[in-house]
Design brief:
By secondary structure, this protein is of the alpha+beta class. The chain is 44% helix and 10% strand. The chain has a domain of 113 residues. A four-stranded mixed β-sheet has the order 1-2-4-3. Helix 3 runs antiparallel to helix 6 and helix 6 packs antiparallel against helix 8. It is found in: Cell membrane.
């Protein structure tokens, strides 16, 4: 029977005072959940916040089982992104450099260094910058699309034990993977506002997650009916 995703954010419970009774110390940990309830992926009925912490999560309306998950935190997603960035730096970077050498592209600021180079780039027309960055953007986009469509996660996410799912807990389809990659590139080019949204989202979702309807999770606990 199909299950759906009920995201929750895992945080460390507040520590009890040193003078608290032993009973309080042994009190079961409360599982924080998202601030707004998520609709059931089967019948779209609004769910209660506490449902994600239930031992056997099921929709109270359609009675179909749900799948509580632990979303990947901000720093874990940042670490996975840095791993992917390092991988692309040693693959897409040299390939793009070779293509520019092959077609004889003239450097934008061959003699500029440091701040002068940054100011030169800032004064350059955006269309010129996008054209020069075209090979890198294409390679990065292909990496994101193929990785997510094929395995549901990038290499960095695999090493950090996280993966991408849709609202039904399934790996993204090819269409969703393409949409997500395009939104991720656009959000990164826009002063990295897309990835930065993770820090402000209770579900730790970036803008490209919101656009594509995906979640980045750490673990999945399947509840049998």
């Amino acid at each position: 029977m199909a299950t759906g995703v009920a995201p929750r954010v895992a945080t460390e419970p507040a520590s009890e005072p040193a003078s608290a009774p032993a009973a309080q110390a042994n009190k079961p940990k409360r599982v924080p959940v998202r601030r707004r309830p998520m609709p059931c992926p089967h019948c779209d009925a609004e769910l209660e916040r506490e449902l994600a912490a239930a031992a056997t999560a099921a929709c109270p309306h359609c009675e179909r089982p749900l799948m509580p998950v632990e979303v990947a935190g901000f720093w874990r997603r940042c670490a996975a992104g840095l791993i992917d960035l390092a991988l692309l730096s040693v693959t897409a970077g040299p390939i793009a450099w070779g293509l520019h050498r092959l077609i004889g592209s003239v450097p934008l600021a061959p003699d500029a260094r440091g701040l002068d180079f940054a100011l030169t780039l800032f004064a350059t027309d955006v269309s010129v910058l996008l054209l020069r960055a075209g090979p890198v953007l294409v390679l990065v986009g292909l990496y994101l699309m193929i990785s997510v469509a094929w395995t549901g996660r990038t290499l960095g996410q695999r090493l950090l034990a996280v993966r991408i799912v849709d609202r039904h807990g399934q790996p993204p389809s090819v269409v969703v993977a393409v949409l997500r990659a395009l939104a991720q590139l656009a959000g990164t080019l826009a002063a990295a506002l897309g990835p930065a949204w993770i820090a402000f989202s209770s579900e730790r979702r970036a803008i490209h997650d919101l656009v594509s309807g995906t979640y980045v999770i750490r673990a999945v606990r399947v509840v049998s009916g």
